[in-house]
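One chain shown below:
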Amino acid sequence: RMSEVKKVLFIVNKFAGTGFQSQVEGRILDICSENNAECSIEYTRSRGHATELALQGVQNKFHFVAAVGGDGTINEVAQGMLHSSVPMGIIPKGSGNGLARHLGIAMDIRGALNNLFNSRIVEIDTFTVNGKLSLNVSGVGFDGHIANLFSKKIKRGLIGYSKLAFKEFFSFEEFPLTLTVENKILEKNAFVVSIANSSQFGNNAYIAPRASVCDQILQVVIMKKMPLHRIDLIYSLFNQTLDKHTAYCETIPVKKISIQTKEPISYHVDGEPCGEHSEFNIEVIARSLKMLVPNHSMAI
């Protein structure tokens, strides 16, 4: 063990996922003292506050800065840490935790804290959608529509999300779109277009089973609206075989893509609703974020 005391900043969103458990702070203090680390804990007060706190963490030369929250909190912390020399850690407290799951981070707080102190630094890719930073999976179409509706609901969580998605599924139609990739123009119809840096949305639903956060490539997954008799396709998300169902799902690896739609369409960035747009410019930012990944984790 290094004798040097590590200074660690934890940025906590009390309202992520299922709400705040008071023992979180105690766990953080315990595991930091076990690892000879001096910790500071800051709570986010409003949207954008996590980014300010992360920027301060970088300026104050913390050894690392850990985001304690869901995909939205993680995204905000990353905005303050992009291209910096300070690595970022994740303590997943959201309802999906897509990126944390992809990186092999434990889902319980004690496990995730122990992972932080037994990790290596990996430079991961990020990407932008119309200039907004995304780390995990962003989307245009049905999932954007659901994200926009879901954000207005008081009660969060997988069950509420699933109910809402099921209810809206019947009325949401496929839409025409034009994709421009490396001077090639493709005309398609889609129900959902997912742009995946990591392999899954969260909750072990794999939209892009072959995705890596280190290959400088994004997987653009174009999905058709499945007929009800093919409801089995939902299972393919969970057993990592979605990309085998080529009649309903096409995956295009890209570094950069632009998508035009005839009408404004709902979209989300890392699960956060972004309203509607009819043009989407997407570009990978290679090796732009230093991330703490558990030593045992293979999947990056």
In short: DSSP finds eight helices and 16 strands in the chain. The CA atoms of residues 115 and 196 lie 24 Å apart. The mean pLDDT is 91. The two ends are 26 Å apart (CA to CA).
